[in-house]
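Rotation project, supervised by the postdoc (A.L.). Task for the rotation student: set up a whole-complex structure prediction and record inputs and outputs verbatim in this book. Inputs entered:
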Amino acid sequence: MSIATIEWVDGRIRLIDQTLLPNEFKQIYCDNLEAVWESIKLLRVRGAPAIGIAAALGTVLGVWKSRAANYAEFSDELRKVTDYLATSRPTAVNLFWALNRMIMTAEKHQHASISQLKKVLLDEALAIIEEDRAMCRAIGKHGLQLLNEGDTILTHCNAGGLATSDYGTALAVMFTAHEAGKNISVYADETRPLLQGSRLTAWELMQAGIDVTLICDNMAAQVMKEGKIQCAVVGADRIAANGDAANKIGTYNVAILAQAHEIPFYVAAPTSTLDFSLDTGDRIPIEERAAEEITEGFGKRTAPDGVKVYSPAFDVTPASLITAIITDKGIALPPYTVSLRGLVTA
Ligand code: MRU
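Outputs recorded:
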């Protein structure tokens, strides 16, 4: 993508409003902290790495006009900003990873002047964007070896350029293969209830000239049974030390179906998505979203008034169902408790 998903422009944050795609391509500006929080909450900016970037830039915005007289006051303000942004969405660890990085950066430069500190924090947020860009390209390069000429890949949700600084994670593997001249095709799950697959993934792949076929989520089993899929590649919002991987609700279904049909199931994610503080995925917080996203998504009521609704936005695929995890540092194979640590310490 030549237009940045999210960027810093003259003291404001500019982002593509992803809730409007594919019907309307519009960039919006956030010039206060509340607008950043709301953009994350409402999924105007979404996808684990992009949420991390929004949190980092949001932190800068939150302290940009600080009148703190000393570091103690500045640090108090910074904590309030990061605590607030941390309440926007719970599952993607990249958000907390980025907020923590901003706090650590400020602490490291606590003897700088307040205006220097602001600049240092902006530089850190911009560094996160550049690192994410490089990580996405590296994921694409590593993942390339897993795809064969003529493969058709199933993906779920959107782990593309819109979900990152640029180029994506799961989609980076497909973009890289396509750019390398491999003839690949993709089946994109629609991804109920917010349709990231049909609205965003199908749109991105079509823009890149990759052959893409849209299916409803409940068609994946039949498509696999028909022999149409050679592998599944999805993104992740948080990966525990043992390889259990949280991703958009419905990903776990895909993994079970892939195993039943003896199809490799790959997770692609940057190392910023690894959470070694959690031994397994059992303690990954799962976001619950508003009932209306199911009962009247996109403006039309499709359920009886007053019906009870349960809407977990993510699920956790057990490591036992994951054939390999593609990271920016290389490909991790089971047992992940050993291989993931090995990749980041190598
Ligand atoms: O609710 P969303 O749209 O933020 O969920 C996004 C996903 O589940 C993605 O697959 C994940 O964040 C990986 S993005 C590279």
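Student's summary: The chain is about 40% helix and 15% strand.
Supervisor addendum: The pocket of MRU is lined by residues 43, 46-49, 92, 157, 159, 163-164, 168-169, 196, 235-237, 247-248, 313 (CB under 6 Å).
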